[in-house]
User: What shape does this take?
Amino acid sequence: MYLVLHDKKQIFQGSNNECFRFLLNHQTNSVHHACKYEGYEIIEDKPESCVQYALTGGPGENCIANGNTWHESKITGE
Assistant: This one.
């Protein structure tokens, strides 16, 4: 699974091809231009080493058990 981020916020998830197609339909420039100059990213949704993730949590909390992505389930120093 891949994610489309805009300014580090997830806006779409799907296969690599679906993410490219979404980005081409969502804005007017090329994928390269969008990623280099407009704050878009296409990333693979997988756990990173040395990063903590919430695997479980209460109702409505961002965690893997509630169906959230690895990106959404990162534990930040709040």
About this structure: The chain has two domains: 1-45, 46-78. The beta strands are 2-6, 9-14, 40-44.
